[in-house]
Amino acid sequence: MFADLLRHRDFRWLTAGRSVSLIGNAMAPFAVAFAVLDLTGSPADIGVVVAARSVANVAVLLAGGVLADRLPRALVLQGSSLGAGIFQALMAFAVLTGWASVPLLIALSVANGALAAVFRPASSALTPQTVPADSLRAANTVTRMTQNFAMILGGSVGAGLVAVIGPGWCIAVDALSFVVAALCFTRLRVPDPVREPSHALADLREGWTEFTGRTWVWVIVVQFLFINAINAGGLMVLGPAIADATFGRTGWGLALAAETVGAVAGGLLAARWMPRRALAYGVTLVFAEAVPLVVLAVAPGTVAMVLALTLTGFTMEQAGIAWDVSLQERVPADRLARVYAYDAVGSFVAIPLGTAVAAPAAALFGTRPTLLVGATITVLATAGALTSRSVRTVTTGGPNPRESRSGTHRMQVSGRSEIQGSFLPETAFRCVCKRDSRGLVVGVSRGGWG
């Protein structure tokens, strides 16, 4: 699987750039948190700086999706990565020279959150343009696995650098990682769908039409609006507190590490096998998200939490791959970034609410009832998603072309000529360009824009 994918030049450089960027992203929270503590000593100030980045990220996601569908996606990745490197370098300079302040760190965090929102849809939508259609599932598996490893490595490196050389220099290394990522993205040579000039608001409406026109898309986004909020409150807020009072911080760390091990195993399985109705299978696996909440509520302990989070990692990785492949196979390439943007906004918008209400709810009603209610909501949201016939009948793999919600699409072949045609529902074209990794130009074959 890995060797076959690495034969595709564009996928190699995209994976390298994303991995370096994610390592930097994982380093940043440690460095920024300790930079704020060194500056003011206030945990509340850390929360404000982190929240500023999150709010900016959600606020700009839709605009990021429009940009990723209007401009060459490789260029969007280059620009957003270089911009992030510049702003992180400014933050490092401010911390190292002693003129940093909380308002300045907030402003720079807002800028970086906005650039991350531009980066995300373009990065997600670019994957199917770097590999043939029959390698899409394997490509998404490798992408998610490398992202997991990059986040683990980045967190470890960030913690070590903060301890050894201080937060300012750690942020400087983070800035350098973004520059390296931008250089990787300059090596991409992917053809982009050619789009007619249009207004940004019209693009947002078109993306909304693509998003709402597929019932299975918005149903699952609504499902994860609830699940992400519940998990954010239950596992990110209440989980550490329960662990601290019962089985200890070391046990909690082992449990979180076990989730990553489970995710690797789930990704390896998904790369080799996935049912034809992968989306329904993936949604069914999401029932497992309730298990860690129940364990924390009823019998918190190291062994139980290790088993529960291993199961969660194993199942959620398969669900995530099924989701990505379903979107990439069935949404037209020139609108995919906007659909990813609406997905991200809907899925993440309630996370701050979940983190904000978890502790007050536990104080008011008790920790155990709060967690059990969260597990119940997770089960109900997942069962509700499975009642949708649209969710149950989506298929992946094989001759499963992209759906189109409107008439004419234009695509660029080898950077010069264009092919124009009307797409019927469930129909798309794939242009095989002259590349060492793709073979000679042989015309136009049916499939996905790969």
UniProtKB/TrEMBL annotation:
Residues 392-412 are annotated as: Disordered. Pfam families: MFS_1 (PF07690). Keywords: Cell membrane, Membrane, Transmembrane, Transmembrane helix. SUPFAM superfamilies: MFS general substrate transporter. The chain crosses the membrane at residues 20-40, 46-68, 149-165, 215-238, 250-271, 339-365, 371-388. One of its GO terms (molecular function) is transmembrane transporter activity. Its main location: membrane. The keyword tRNA processing does not apply. CDD domains: MFS_MefA_like (cd06173). It is a multi-pass membrane protein. One of its GO terms (cellular component) is plasma membrane. It is found in: Cell membrane. This is Putative MFS family arabinose efflux permease.
